[in-house]
Amino acid sequence: MMQDKYPYEFLIRCIALLLVPIAFSGCEGSGKIILSEIHVGLHNNNELKIQLEVTTNTPADIYAEYWKEKDSTKKWSSTVARNTSKGRLIICNIFPETDYAYRIVAKNKNAATISKVYTFKTNALPMFLQDQFRADTIKSINPPGEFNDGLMLINKRYAPGVAYLVDRKAEIRWYHMVADLGFKVLHFTQDHTLLSIMGGNDEPTSYGHEILELNLSGDTVLHLKKGQNDLPANIHHEILKNDKGELVTIYVDKKVMDLRAIGGKDKDTVSGDGIIVMDKTGKKLWQWSVFNTLDPLKDKHLLKIKKDWMHANSLSYDRDGNFLLSFYNNGQIWKIDSKSGKVIWKFGKGGTIVKPAECDFTQTHAVHINQQGDLMFFDNGVEKQQSGVFAMKIDEQNQSSRIDMYIKLPKQIFNGRMGSAYMINDTCILVCCSKRHIIVLTDRKGTLLWTMETAVPTYRAEFIRGSELEPYLKP
Q1: For the domain bounded by 158-412, which CATH number is listed?
Q2: What is the CATH number of domain 9-121?
Q3: Which residues contact 93 (CB under 8 A, 6 or more apart)?
Q4: Virtual torsion, Cα 36, 41, 42, 47, nearest 10 deg
Q5: Are 49 and 218 in contact (CB under 8 A)?
Q6: pTM above 0.85, yes or no
Q7: Per-domain residue ranges for the chain?
Q8: What pLDDT shows up at residue 187?
């Protein structure tokens, strides 16, 4: 199991341990619940995760109610330790350098006990986490209410790697650090976990060799390393769970070929891309390769790009359960049958779906189906040196398309590599310009409503709604 490792001694801090013998008043009778001890400290040595260890004389459901000492009108509840006499409670909804009050509640079918009020004060964030983000709300413009009720998922791609959840004020509300690897790609799952590809500083931008899944308590749910069952040595750009809870990622598929006909060697290697579906142990359940569909020898640029022939850079599911796979090098998006592996359509330069002339995207990232059912993607805009966001209505039956939304981003934040764009409601889009170290909120007309500068070139910025973070976090 992967553990946090902090490289600086002064970061190994802990809230003063509180060990208190407690004599509480509770329900009368032999079923009375007595809370005998409470220990308070940091969970996994993380300054934004408080761990309470509670001992009772009899099994009960145990949780903590807590609040800021200066504002007792807003109270929150920790996770619940069920039917136990040794409860471990994790409090995540806290801010650094803040005084909190709390009390323990223990209940079973026979009795209920509430402790008296105790307090703790949180530490400052470690120095390496301070001043990571700086937000600016555009004057006279108010971001939508939904933006207040959610957090942004951001990743630091090089070691020590950090996964962050950040609010609109640029405050870090949750983090998890790994000392020797970076969070190359990070995704929030339908199981309310954080699923990531982990890799070293010597691996390319979005490439790694491990899969790590964390819950919102910061505990490891799943950790796979290369060599375990069928997990490929080089996975990249995407990590997902399908509706069966299986792991889905892109991998590097290397093929030895005779390239003498185009000026290469008789045993040359072409690196393509594939899709692999695995169970939680890394056992292969389904696999597809771009070599099944295209002949590399027909690519006139092959000798120049043979080390990264197609450069697949995002993978998602269409609403019918088939794959959407984007390629940076040929500027196309493919829909692939998730059972047969047949390519259903290609969208982009030379694609099978006819696109309007105004849809002049060049290279894409973060291709997905948005909440309105459109094919949405971040347009790197390499040829025109201006990035943007497209949402397209795709008509599969007639092999046609039309533009539902196109946002031109300011030329000052042109982002030729990486990036993402996701809708937070019907009118606003969260856009990440990775190379520019900036995340912006824009409306459908391209008006900037909010901006945030980042110290780290995060690969993407996902917006996570508050309802998906409960009970751990309250934006």
Answers
A1: 2.40.128.630
A2: 2.60.40.10
A3: 76, 173, 472, 473, 474
A4: 130
A5: yes
A6: yes
A7: 9-121, 158-412
A8: 97
